């Protein structure tokens, strides 16, 4: 059960269906107040404390009223959600069970945003601050904690939430400015936050800065006059020195514009004259490859007599099945790490997602290969589709870029398709601990209801004749990559519960044709963030 208390009280059952609490009567208002205080307490509450939270007149005995309210609540809530326990000396305790509360999510995400910002991880902080503010979306100042009773006891719980909302709004705006995300949308967003705190000088100052960086100097000067009037009306004082200083700098044209350098991609993984991109492209029947790369693939086939080249097509087909599966589960956003060349013989992620859902998806592709970048920028265009030439190891840069297109408060399908074997230290664990930490950073930034779709080459069960060519532990391997074990690859799924059929050969993952075992194995699975 989901309990939303930050605005008007809303309840939904485990299937997301709204629960009807009724409107209007004083009795119903008391019922809503009871549910609100129980949700915010999040622990067994003695009846004496419940009365103090619900009513301010301690001399009156509200026992029978409380008993009736509890009975009403049990009739409207799902069975077993409002339980009665016995405390010390026989005291009766009440508690909501098996429920999530938007206020708890708000506080938790705010704390995670603060922790990321303290570490200098601004893009991650922005994701968490944005997610913290998500429960407040659509809530007006008048609706804030609307059904929480106006009692001294309840105000002790309400005021910290109101104050935290202001602080998180300030932090979200400041973080976006630090990231160089000044935009007309940010200016409008600051205006929405000011509706909750009209005299907030930090927000007024940041609105001036955003307008100035957008080249709207005149609007910034006008915004200062509006800010000064609001502060005078609310507090009866003029603006403080920090806001006045920004105004003076804007008037003089001396406020720094704080341009940010674009992150650079690390050099593309290569071995000699070969590129992973070119070899993969040749096995898929593409033309963006060199004579040396074609000769390398042909030599493997001739020397080993294996069908290793067929696995790349199996992998690509599996990834598209995964995308269709996620689209069928309601995912409308995708972040593709190490996207590779757009394949002419297969539809892209955004094309596949578009055909599998009623509404257009939003997709961000990321790759650090300059050839991939040139081709992708030419082919990946249109509303809701973006490509960024970035290194997937730079989580902050990727999240910063992706956050300009994707909404991290909503579910995202994170795709790492046969790309993580190329990264990680060459230690005894093949860098698995390092890459597990990397994947965890990405997954932590995703909203509940998101998914991780992963495929990865494995050394388990492959033809041993292939190892001298591709095994990173072989000193003369021409195209080295980490042939991790199934157990190591499972660790990369960072403990997420897997959709059926679990972690398996890509050709056997929800196949549309009979599975054919290959001499070179790629395995994959989808983990769900629940």
From TrEMBL:
Domain of life from the UniProt record: Bacteria
Q: Pfam families from the xrefs?
A: BTAD, Methyltransf_19
One of its GO biological process terms is: regulation of DNA-templated transcription
Q: Which residues form the Bacterial transcriptional activator domain?
A: 101-251
Keywords, A to Z, come to:
Transcription, Transcription regulation
Q: Output the InterPro entries linked to this UniProt entry.
A: AfsR-DnrI-RedD_regulator, BTAD, SAM-dependent_MTases_sf, SAM_dep_MeTrfase_SAV2177_type, TPR-like_helical_dom_sf, WH-like_DNA-bd_sf
One GO molecular-function entry: DNA binding
Q: Where is the signal peptide?
A: none
Write down the SUPFAM superfamilies for this protein, in alphabetical order.
S-adenosyl-L-methionine-dependent methyltransferases (SSF53335), TPR-like (SSF48452)
Identification of the protein by name? Bacterial transcriptional activator domain-containing protein
Origin species: Actinomadura rayongensis
Q: What is the lineage of its organism?
A: Bacteria, Bacillati, Actinomycetota, Actinomycetes, Streptosporangiales
């Amino acid at each position: 059960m989901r309990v939303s208390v930050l605005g008007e009280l809303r309840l939904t059952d485990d299937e997301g269906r709204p629960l009807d609490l009724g409107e209007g009567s004083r009795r119903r208002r008391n019922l809503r107040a009871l549910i609100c205080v129980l949700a915010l307490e999040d622990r067994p509450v003695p009846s004496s404390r419940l009365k103090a939270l619900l009513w301010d007149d301690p001399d009156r005995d509200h026992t029978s009223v409380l008993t009736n309210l509890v009975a009403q609540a049990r009739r409207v809530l799902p069975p077993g959600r409002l339980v009665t326990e016995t405390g010390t000396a026989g005291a009766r305790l009440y508690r909501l069970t098996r429920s999530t509360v938007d206020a708890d999510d708000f506080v938790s995400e705010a704390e995670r945003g603060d922790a990321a910002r303290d570490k200098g991880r601004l893009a991650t902080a922005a994701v968490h601050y944005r997610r913290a503010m998500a429960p407040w979306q659509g809530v007006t100042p008048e609706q804030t904690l609307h059904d929480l009773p106006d009692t001294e006891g309840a105000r002790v719980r309400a005021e910290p939430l109101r104050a935290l909302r202001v602080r998180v709004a300030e932090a979200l705006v400041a973080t976006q400015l630090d990231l160089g995300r000044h935009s007309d949308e940010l200016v409008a967003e600051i205006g929405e936050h000011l509706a909750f705190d009209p005299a907030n000088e930090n927000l007024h100052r940041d609105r001036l800065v955003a307008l100035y960086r957008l080249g709207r100097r005149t609007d910034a000067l006008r915004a200062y006059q509006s800010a000064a009037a609001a502060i005078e009306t609310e507090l009866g004082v003029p603006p403080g020195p920090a806001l006045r200083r920004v105004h003076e700098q804007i008037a003089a044209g001396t406020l720094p514009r704080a341009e940010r350098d674009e992150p650079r991609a690390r050099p593309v993984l290569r071995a000699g004259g070969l590129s992973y991109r070119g070899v993969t492209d040749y096995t898929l029947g593409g033309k963006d490859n060199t004579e040396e790369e074609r000769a390398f693939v042909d030599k493997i086939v001739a020397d080993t007599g294996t069908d290793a080249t067929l696995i790349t097509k199996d992998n690509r087909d599996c990834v598209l099945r995964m995308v269709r599966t996620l689209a069928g589960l309601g995912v409308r956003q995708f972040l593709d790490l190490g996207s590779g060349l757009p394949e002419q013989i297969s539809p892209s992620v955004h094309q596949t997602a578009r055909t599998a859902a009623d509404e257009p998806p939003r997709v961000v592709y990321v790759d650090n290969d300059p050839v991939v970048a040139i081709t992708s920028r030419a082919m990946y265009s249109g509303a809701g589709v973006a490509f960024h030439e970035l290194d997937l190891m730079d989580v902050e840069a990727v999240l910063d870029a992706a956050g300009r297109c994707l909404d991290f408060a909503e579910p995202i399908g994170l795709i790492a398709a046969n790309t993580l074997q190329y990264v990680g230290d060459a230690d005894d664990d093949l860098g698995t601990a390092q890459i597990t930490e990397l994947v965890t950073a990405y997954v932590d930034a995703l909203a509940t209801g998101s998914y991780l779709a992963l495929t990865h080459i494995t050394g388990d069960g492959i033809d041993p004749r292939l190892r001298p060519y591709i095994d990173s532990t072989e000193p003369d391997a021409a195209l080295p990559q980490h042939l991790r074990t199934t157990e190591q690859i499972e660790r990369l799924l960072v403990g997420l519960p897997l959709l059926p059929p679990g972690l398996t050969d890509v050709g056997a993952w929800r196949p549309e044709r009979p599975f054919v075992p290959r001499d070179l194995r790629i395995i994959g699975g989808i983990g769900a963030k629940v």
